[in-house]
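Appendix B. Chain record.
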Amino acid sequence: MDLATLIPAGGLGAVGAGGLLVMVVLYLLNANRADRKEYQEAIDRAERRADDAEARRAAAEARLDGLQQAVDEARAARRTAEDRADALAREVAALRPPDAGRPP
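Structure tokens predicted for this chain:
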């Protein structure tokens, strides 16, 4: 609503002080309503961006958890392989005769 639409056909001279006050109040109320609508739209856009960022953060955190689990599994497999290699080395050492490592 524009202020010009509130002006009567006879111009401002046809409106008394009370009528002019009512027109100004109506104009300000309409402008306030438009501003509130713009602010609400801006808030809605900001909330959507925040929700999108939260979803991206949650996805990244889930991926990080999966990668950390894979690292932990690889470490456990390496430790198991090292323990098995040590056990085999001890077994071979136990089966080898005492002078087998010396040249003749």
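Further analysis of this model is presented in Appendix C.
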